[in-house]
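So, is this right?
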Amino acid sequence: MSRRKRRIQQRSIERRDAQIGMGERKFRDMSIRISSFMGRFGFEARRIAPNLASGAYLKLQFAMRGHDGDEYCRWFLEQPQIPMPQVVNIETINRCNSTCAFCTANVHAEKRPFRKISDDLYRSIIDQLADWGYGGHLTLYGNNEPLLDTGIVEKHRYAREKLPESFIFMSTNGLLLTLDRIREVQPYIDQLIINNYAEEYKLHDNIRQIYDYVRTHEEEFRDIEIIIQMRYLQEVLTNRAGSSPNKKATEKVYTKTCLLPFTDLWITPNGTVGICCCDNLEVTDFGDVNKTPLREIWEGEKLQAARRAIAQGRDRYPFCKNCDFIDAGFRTAVARAVMDGDQAGANRIGGEGAPARTPCRLPFGKGRRLPCVRRRLSFSLSAP
């Protein structure tokens, strides 16, 4: 690229940054970017008319993604061998330090007894995934803030060592995040998603410092993509099967299918496998990893019976019948790729619906990764 073209491109970037006041850039080859569903307009809509915005969002998502969900559920049940999960969620500690109005885990609404996963149980889960040949997505996150677990970096290190091909992504509210903490964890994760929950469309001071630093030191963070999502602290999302503090389930019955029991393996700190992330209060129980092998639970009749019911419509399964959760795009894209026979491509789709650079892992040393840029599906996200 000529010097003149580089100057023109730089001025274009600066103008775009100035227009939105925060630098929401969407170039896929960057180490850090800012994302917001429908930008500042969407944020303000969720702030001014939260219920209206939530209803419109859900109608849009159901219209866009319902067919693909139906198709994947049928495909899953038709396979002679039960397919592997596409996303493994391990909640290592069941506490959060934020006040998000929509979440049962916020500091004002939390009702669960405190639990933190034991080191032995955690390693057993990771070892079982490795023995299973798992190469899909992994996140040590659930209805919680992962940075409250003081051993979270070591847990990611162990996961990366045992699951070198897995796409490991970390989601955090960023309140405890610093550059040093990013440096500690970045050798072990592919993607860091920072949910900047706020009352205004602005970055928290520590997140702004991180953003400014990474933008000017991208070489230092070339092996990780950092995505900052602008989230309204008081927004209304889904009713989470009736557990959301600011959107209770109504008597309305939903007949659509749901991808989560087909794509996600959901593990709580005490080893219980639940149906999905919407089971904030840990009501469902499909097995205990302390007593039953992980794969046996995933392929077991109890969970498979729930899937068969939900494939006919979530109204066929009592826990799900009044739940209005809908995938924001990530799992739908993964499901499409899997059905197209591209499991490797499915495994490289960015976590939580966020587009990501794909690091190429080459066998020339433990933990070493060579970054490269590949085309990725792009989504904006509002739901957690």
